[in-house]
Amino acid sequence: MHNPCAVIPVYNHESAIGTVVDALLAQDLPCILVDDASKPSCAKVLDALAERDNVHLVRLTANQGKGGAVMTGLREAALLGFTHALQVDADGQHDLHDVARFVEESRAHPNAMICGYPLFDESVPKGRLYARYLTHVMVWINTLSLQIRDSMCGFRVYPLTPTLAVIDSRKVGKRMDFDSDILVRLAWRNQPMRWLQTSVHYPLDGVSHFRLLHDNALISSMHTRLFFGMLLRFPVILWRRWRA
User: Is the CB of residue 122 less than 8 Å from the CB of residue 207?
Assistant: First the structure.
């Protein structure tokens, strides 16, 4: 069975979210919006969108961060009977022309996670671009593999059953550390992954919630935790590599 939806964490992206929802609904993809304690003007826009068919709204009373909002949306997707969820950012940075391609790849490989790896244009902040390369190296070390081509691109289709099994049994990062953290933990469980290149633009509404010092510190802390987690799993990971 393959019953997909889109999960969109929203924090004060009232200018862009309508365009994102329109694009997803036009491709017959139901949307779950997670209001991460946005300001009243954004909440009003989300309330209006939630009146449309195939749009579901979950409202958090306190800001959880991107990861916390995504995890809330994934749980809601499972409760609503969906089997797979496409994670989409609310600011319009993802190329929504690729939605059908990602969903079809997921339909053809329902047990796999379908992950985007980005093709950036000139709008990408250079500091964030360079920091990605350090993250790539740390992820390769923490998985003892080059399997993960890019752990920070949030445009991906999750098979809900294995993803929620990780979320419900491990402490996964709730903020900008979520995207890499969940991918490494799924890789440790031998989760199949397939990779599709996709264009990324920064951002449609000019609002970015990435805090350079704070979020880079969170990501560095996450890599440290994952490194020691990898050491504990080292024999099992090597055994799986040898058997493969």
Answer: no
Strand order in the sheet with 113-120: 55-60, 31-36, 4-10, 84-87, 156-159, 113-120, 193-200
Q: For the segment 63-83, what is each residue's pLDDT rounded down to a tens digit? A: 999 999 999 999 999 999 999
How many CA atoms within 13 Å lie on the side-chain side of 100? 6
Read off the DSSP letter of residue 112: S
CA dihedral sign, ordered 132, 95, 88, 15: positive
CA angle, residues 143, 154, 244, in degrees to nearest 5: 30
Based on DSSP, count helices (H) and strands (E) in the chain, helices before strands.
Answer: 8, 7
CA 126, chain centre distance (Å): 21
Closest of 74, 86, 72, 78 to residue 36, by C-alpha: 72
105 versus 200: the higher-pLDDT residue is 105
Task: Indicate the pTM of the whole model.
Answer: 0.88
Residue with tokens 């992206």: 13
H-state helical runs in 149-189: 160-167, 178-188
